[in-house]
Amino acid sequence: MSHHIKGQGRHQITLLPEALDDFVTEDNPVRVIDIFVDGLQLDSLGFERVAAKQTGRPGYHPATLLKLYIYGYLNRIQSSRRLEKETHRNVELMWLLERLTPDFKTIADFRKTNGKGIKNACKAFIDVCRQMQMFTDVIVAIDGSKFKAVNSKPNNFTPQKAKDHIERVEQSINKYLSKLDESDKNSENDASSELNATKLAWLRKRLEELKGIQKIVEQQPDKQLSLTDPDSRLMKTNNMNRQVCYNVQTAVDTKNHLIVAHKVTNTTDRGQLSSVTKLVQEAVDQKEITVLADKGYYSRGDIKEILDSGAVALVPKGDTSGADRKGLYNLALFKYNQEKDIYICPAGNELQNRFTTVEDGLELQMYFNCIACRDCSQRAKCTTSKSAARRIRRWVHESEMENMQAKLDAAPQTATIRKQTVEHPFGTIKMWMGATHFLMRRFTNVSTEISLHILAYNLKRMISIWGVAGLQMKFKELYQ
């Protein structure tokens, strides 16, 4: 006789609880989802069909499908077909949706047609967090991460890749033409000749397709074309591999680790700092915030725009001059004297401010000393020019960049705080997604999908901070 715990017989009649609510515990996260969605003004957020028509077949209320998606993304179920299955067997969803079971097409169409509403619902959650005083003395860390798109590398083309493909196809065409010529000389007319002719016809058709792709690639502003998802781009990832993906920008609060703002791009991080900072300022409804970012975001124009908006930026400057590789003195060795408005070169000579010019939209002051450079014994280490003096360019607002660097030097822990803050949410969301790509295509749909991921992440984070009961109570207070 076994001493293990025994189960009940499958055919034994059981008296189940009379109410479905008895199956859902008081600390179940679905109760938070229910209260949050019921408190939203869905029509003002941009959801469609909030007010049902009096004629025709009734449809599902947007709140029902929004609850379904938030639950799905919170529990790593993003597929519309899998969500449909869960509505039939998942007791939590039966409670949340009041036993409604929409089909997968209805579920998928809701996500596709309500992108604006879903994005605004994500913003509304941050606004609720702001009203709960979650954002005081706002310090955010900004970073980007690459997420794979629904587009394989073979379906992405650059001018060089298109050229290489065309050359390979032309070589194959010449190869099969040679085979057909040999068959004609030997008066062969067998199955192999027919097969070669078929392959040759396919190759010629493929060659025309590739030439058409080559023309389209040359017309693209960034000289790149993705066939499956036209908005995705081939970019380098952290391990220096290249993937067709999107670059998702996020700003994470260093205190509570909530994702305050996000943005989907298909370019590098450079040039994104100012736009993401503005999204954060709008989300927390205050201008005086502090922004942390890595050197990939360093752009003087971007940082100046942030400072002018009332925010504080802490972004380290990377060395991109390449002078050390050339065996020349690095710009960092030239010391600026603010009182005299001169630069002191490594040889001890003074470089005066000669004139002002504009390069790449920036107003620059030029510093050099022709006489001192001409007779300098270290000239070979300073410049490769045989006649011109070494010129130092200084932006007219460079003092603000130097003040920022001084703050960074005084707070060496800034880089660690930034990394600990912004990397973890990316890792969590990618773990939820699994080893896969976005389910949708194009900027609009991908933005909708990442908004659902971020809404689910923020919701789970708030549950960790307040607990289910505490968060329910806060939501009820705010919605009264």
How would you characterize this protein structure?
With 480 residues, this protein is of the alpha+beta class. Among the domains are: 20-132 and 452-479, no CATH class; 159-223. Helix content is 46%, strand content 15%. It is built from 15 helices and 13 strands. It has helices spanning 30-38, 42-45, 62-74, 80-89, 91-96, 104-113, 115-131, 159-185, 191-219, 273-284, 300-308, 370-374, 398-410, 414-433, 442-479; strands at residues 139-148, 156-157, 225-226, 233-236, 242-253, 259-265, 290-292, 312-314, 335-337, 342-344, 350-359, 362-368, 392-395. The strands form 3 sheets. Strands 1, 4, 5, 6, 7 and 8 form a 6-stranded mixed β-sheet that branches. A 5-stranded antiparallel β-sheet has the order 9-10-11-12-13. Helix 1 (30-38) packs across helix 15 (442-479). The longest helix is centred in the C-terminal third of the chain and has 38 residues, at 442-479. It is flat. The relative contact order is 0.13.
Number of helices: 15
Shape: flat
What structural class is derived from the secondary structure elements?
alpha+beta
The biggest beta sheet reads: 6 strands, mixed
Element string (H = helix, E = strand): HHHHHHHEEHHEEEEHEHEEEEEHEHHH
- Calculate the mean pLDDT score and round it: 88
N-to-C CA distance:
60 Å
The share of residues in extended strands comes to 5-15%
Compute the CA-based radius of gyration.
31 Å
Low-confidence stretches: none
How many β strands by DSSP?
A: 13
Helix content: 40-55%
